[in-house]
Design brief:
- The chain is mostly helical.
- Helices cover 60% and strands 0% of the residues.
- The chain starts with a helix and ends with a helix.
- The relative contact order is 0.13.
Length: 235
């Protein structure tokens, strides 16, 4: 009873978290099509474009190749397909790739390479942002395991949790002092840390349903974090 009422109030007040962006993994058919595009360079027609190394440039003429649609973000960013990643290594990889494929470096190249550079750069940016944040990383990892998180879901979130979120939002709406704001922010940060640790353990145990439930809760607290940021912006 309470769960339905609370969820209805959340929808009216706009507190149900929205879907985070993320590239949908390729279907088996799409992957097959991509994999059969051939092993020859689009520019020189030479052999050898087999994805060795980064697979970014033709080993014969060094022309920039199109992005590989079968490659997931973890592979692209040279990370293990795991929730627990080295974010420092991720940042270094991001900088390395942008030094190779950023559009600024292709201003004097062919239009085809300019277009490929734009696509590569966008893909690398998306991959970096997705893997950097625990919430978007977890949601993306679930997608790779074939588990979708419908937009605006409150999947198996108990009424007690929803009431907790509602109380935090009410406190945030009524906050009058910097000390009170810091207290709320500290509470939210601690909860997100707890959820992140639990999500990591769930993935390590291949408990995807548990990870899904925890990530749903993280979405709600992420929504609160955004409200805190807006509240701190001086009008």
């Amino acid at each position: 009873m309470w769960g339905g009422r609370v969820r209805s109030l959340f929808r009216v007040w706009g507190l149900v978290p929205a879907e985070l962006p993320g590239r949908r993994p390729l279907s088996e058919h799409a992957a097959s099509q991509a994999g059969s595009r051939g092993l020859r360079c689009w520019s020189c027609g030479g052999p050898g474009y087999s994805g060795r190394g980064d697979g970014l440039f033709c080993p014969q003429c060094r022309a920039l190749q199109p992005p590989d649609p079968t490659r997931d973000y973890f592979s692209l960013m040279d990370c293990n397909r795991s929730f627990r990643i080295d974010t420092t290594k991720l940042q270094h990889r991001y900088q390395q790739l942008q030094r190779l494929i950023h559009p600024d470096f292709f201003s004097q190249r062919s239009q085809t390479e300019k277009d490929f550079s734009e696509k590569h750069s966008t893909l690398v940016n998306d991959a970096y942002k997705t893997l950097l944040a625990p919430l978007s990383r977890g949601l993306y990892l679930l997608k790779l395991h074939g588990i979708e998180m419908p937009e605006g879901t409150d999947y198996e979130v108990d009424s007690q949790f929803l009431m907790e979120i509602m109380e935090i939002n009410e406190k945030l709406a009524e906050v009058q002092s910097e000390a009170a704001m810091e207290e709320i922010e500290s509470t939210v940060r601690a909860k997100q840390k707890e959820f992140t640790d639990n999500v990591s353990r769930a993935f390590e145990q291949d408990n995807f349903e548990e990870a899904k439930e925890l990530l749903t809760k993280m979405r709600y607290f992420s929504n609160v974090e955004e409200k805190i940021k807006l509240k701190k912006i001086p009008l």
